[in-house]
């Protein structure tokens, strides 16, 4: 099968590309820059230059492919134009869904488990908290994607843990680690007893392949290997690795230090992936988050391969 992937040159995207190619699939990746195009070519993917604003290009790529994985997002514009970025995402989702109507092809949208952090232990059946402005816009995009399941599209949503860790990660854990190096301590909120789920990006890549191959229309899947690690334990591991103390701060102080990541760090997000594992026969096999931190994945010391 040939997968059209947006965000293909990103941290998770490259792992997904590699996973697909290693299992006999073809990949057409959208590349905004020459640098991104070169990354994809080195992996062995076909490249289409363009951006998420080029809806006609997206439609042509979909027409020549057997399905879509939508990982792309305008992260670099989110801080300055939050509402417009999410509006643009819904335009992309609508264009993709309409191009796939009555085809039976898979359409996989990337989401996050934080949108169900209100649940005591979130399952795939839990609905997002639409009252939370930090997460409701993502939930709207997810709902739009799933609406195409009623129009002959094998539409699915993959909720990713807030940390898809591994060497080369530039996400939440890396941001916390960079701030710890800068200020001389690693901050956590209150007693740090709240939780984050975690998964290695290579396990996420495998889940994308399995969902693309056999996931059911209208399904929500959870890319979660570890259901909930206390945030204090995570921050202490970061502090220990960089030789700085882990120090408790108020939520407001941590948000001042970390911005949006501070809001995420305040969430208590215990998440199950039991149904995902059963249905897709997905078994995470990579090392855990704390082991990754201890191995030097966020210091450049790791001896493990990126793939």
Automatic annotation (TrEMBL):
GO terms for cellular component: cytoplasm. One of its GO terms (molecular function) is aldehyde dehydrogenase (NAD+) activity. Residues 4-220 form the NAD-dependent epimerase/dehydratase domain. InterPro entries: Epimerase_deHydtase, NAD(P)-bd_dom_sf, NAD(P)-dependent_oxidoreduct. Coiled coil: none annotated. This is NAD-dependent epimerase/dehydratase domain-containing protein. The lineage of its organism: Eukaryota, Fungi, Dikarya, Ascomycota, Pezizomycotina.
């Amino acid at each position: 099968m040939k997968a059209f992937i947006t965000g293909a040159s990103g941290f998770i995207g490259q792992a997904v590309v590699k996973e697909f190619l290693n299992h006999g699939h073809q990949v057409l990746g959208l590349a905004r820059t020459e640098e991104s195009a070169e990354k994809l070519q080195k992996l062995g993917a076909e490249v289409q230059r363009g951006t998420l604003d080029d809806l006609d290009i997206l439609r042509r790529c979909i027409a020549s492919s057997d399905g879509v994985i939508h990982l792309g997002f305008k992260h670099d514009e989110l801080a300055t134009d939050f509402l417009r970025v999410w509006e643009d995402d819904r335009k992309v989702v609508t264009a993709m869904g309409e191009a796939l109507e009555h085809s039976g092809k898979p359409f996989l949208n990337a989401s996050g488990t934080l949108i169900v952090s209100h649940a005591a232990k979130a399952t795939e059946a839990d609905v997002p908290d639409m009252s939370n402005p930090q997460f409701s816009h993502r939930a709207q995009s997810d709902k739009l994607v799933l609406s195409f399941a009623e129009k002959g599209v094998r539409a699915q949503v993959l909720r990713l843990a807030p940390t898809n860790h591994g060497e080369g990660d530039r996400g939440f854990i890396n941001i916390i680690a960079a701030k710890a190096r800068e200020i001389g301590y690693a901050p956590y909120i209150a007693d740090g007893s709240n939780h984050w789920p975690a998964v290695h990006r290579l396990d996420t890549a495998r889940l994308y392949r399995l969902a693309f191959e056999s996931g059911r229309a209208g399904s929500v899947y959870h890319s979660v290997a570890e259901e909930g690690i206390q945030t204090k334990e995570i921050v202490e591991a970061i502090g220990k690795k960089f030789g700085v103390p882990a120090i408790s701060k108020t939520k407001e102080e941590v948000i001042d230090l970390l911005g949006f990541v501070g809001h995420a760090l305040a969430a208590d997000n215990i998440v199950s992936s039991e149904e995902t594992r059963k249905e897709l026969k997905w078994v995470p096999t990579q090392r855990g988050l704390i082991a990754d931190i201890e191995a030097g994945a966020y210091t450049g010391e790791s001896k493990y391969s990126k793939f």
